[in-house]
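Worked Example 4.2. Consider the chain below.
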Amino acid sequence: MGLSAVLVRCHVDTWSFVLLQMTRSSGGILTPAARWSEDQSDTRTWVDEELKLMDVKLSGPRLADVVQMLWYLPNERRGWGRPAGLVSKEFVVVTGVDSQKAQRIYDAIAPVIERVEVNSPRRSELPTVIIDDAIGSTS
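Applying the procedure from the previous section yields the following structure tokens:
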């Protein structure tokens, strides 16, 4: 991927959604081998406690885990050609709301990844993905 680490700035509910999808033991799309046993973020710091906005630092490999999950969460993307580590759509049906959340988070992360210059030294701060904090209020 070319990223050593990234900051994801989001509402606490948004990170809770990602974390639930990455760790859930039943009803999730990840197989036990691909699932996180706990929160894999390196650090979480409040940007604005009143608004419940936080920065979550993820390593490049952990970000890759999250991006894969977000891409394949919508039911229509999990067919017979799914990557290893994902449960078939026949066994897990994801709600439309969760599919929309996953798509919105993915759409915020993908452009930041695309701007990364592979194999070049980092010249400044970590890349920051800013996810619309309103997504946290969607249920």
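Residues 5-129 form one domain. The chain has one domain: 5-129. Compare this with Example 4.1 before moving on.
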